Amino acid sequence: MSKYTSGLSKNWHLSFYTLWLGCFITGMGYSMTMPFISLFISDLGNYSKLEINLYSGLAFAMTFIAQAIVSPFWGSLADQKGRKLMCMRASGVMALTISLTGLAPNAIYIVIMRFIQGAFSGYINNATALMAGETPHEKSGWVMSQMMTAGTAGNLVGPLLGGALSSFFGNLLGGAWGYRIPFFITGLLMFLVFLGTTFFTKENFTPVSREKMKPMKDIMASLPSIQLIVAMFITTMLVQSATMSIDPIVSLYVKSMMPGSKNVALIAGIVAATPGLGTMIAASKIGHKMDEIGPLKVLRLGLIIGAILFAPMAVTNSPWVLAALRFLLGIASAAMMPAAQTVLTLNTPSESFGRIFSYNQSFQAIGAVLGSLLGSGISGFANYEAVFWVTGFTLLLNFLIILIFASKKNTPR
User: Which helix (H) or strand (E) element contains residue 57?
Assistant: First the structure.
């Protein structure tokens, strides 16, 4: 065991378990409330169908727009004050804003609260950056995969729990209260995450004064490979865009395969959940493989497999075949985003983790907005199948970018 590993072993395990749980609850809280936001809005006033769709889209997009704008600022502050404080900030504000959203009197209020939440968000990304700095490098691949699994597991549990709570309290209390209660419960859980992060997370961090911080251009110039870092930023954006282009239309695509069926909602839910299940099952194994052979090799394999899988998805007429293919896509996804984050971890000086990962979060937010527009736009002007073809081409393009910019000499291992 290296000196570095033995010096961190006691604290980084406790921090890892605490932050993993925090990421799980953050992912669960998001997916426990957002899938039902349009139903919540429809109960808040006499809105037309167009208004409900517009306000729902704004409520969804505002968070990512705010993230893209403010993430560099929070990243700079993280390098000055530490990532733990950023996790505390994100979980504390999220606890407050989500609870206040449960008190919403109208749709505009929800859109505003979502923007504020996005402006102060970033728990998962900061927790990942914190663990990137605290984890021994020989464990980086496994830890990055597990941190991704936390949010994925939360996203799987959230819709089921949110749907059950909404139905139960809707029948018990009536009206919009069925949709309000999950917001209050999520707010309470995020407050517990704030307390856990405050008291159980340890960070070996030496504060850096604003005067002593290197400008971002100097940091980029000092990196082993600027091209490699930029390629990972682009990868984060394109992979997130690929995910978000499909998620909003999956249930409608399933419905088009099953005209007249009474089980569309159930089967669509299964199809929507299968990628997360595949990611959860494969994440640990793929993480260990990254530590053995290097994250770039795993990333290239994940991108090409993902690109190939979208082709049969576009031509199948069976929701069960689609579910099986999306399960395989989930396995490939475990080799995409975690691998990109691991490359960033291994090629970024520890004093610059905050800003590099914040820029990565901005690219992720941009990808989420672009993906949503891509999926809705293509399906509106063409058809659902075209979304899958374009998304597959996007991952193929990402694979080519990695081949061009992440040359052998830039490989971090």
Answer: helix 49-81
What does the alpha-carbon distance between residue 121 and residue 116 come to, in Å, rounded to a whole number?
8
Tens of pLDDT, residue by residue over 129-177, are: 888 778 877 777 788 878 878 887 887 787 778 777 877 887 787 666 7
Rounded to whole angstroms, the Cα distance separating 356 from 358 reads 5
Q: Which CATH number fits domain 216-413: 1.20.1730.10, 3.90.76.10, 1.20.1250.20, 3.60.20.10?
A: 1.20.1250.20
Handedness of CA 199, 201, 207, 213 (dihedral sign): negative
Q: How far is it between the farthest Cα atoms of the chain? A: 66
The DSSP call for residue 214 is: P
Q: Are 25 and 190 in contact (CB under 8 A)?
A: yes
Residue 349, pLDDT > 60, answer yes
Among residues 288, 361, 331, 3, the alpha carbon closest in space to that of 139 is found at 288
pLDDT at 251 over 70: no
Query: Is 0.85 surpassed by the pTM of this model?
Result: no
Question: Which among 230, 328, 338 is positioned nearest to 287, based on CA atoms?
Answer: 338
**CA-only gyration radius of the chain, Å:** 21
The token pair that represents 84 in the structure block: 């733990």
Angle between helices 353-381 and 384-405 (to 10 degrees): 150
Query: pLDDT tens digit string along 398-411?
Result: 999 898 876 554 44
| C-alpha angle 270-54-119 in degrees, rounded to nearest 5 | 85
Alpha helices by DSSP H, 201-263: 216-222, 226-246, 250-257
Architecture of the domain delimited by 1-203: Up-down Bundle (1.20)
Q: Phi-psi category of 294—alpha, beta or left, where left has phi over 0 and alpha has psi -120 to 50? A: left
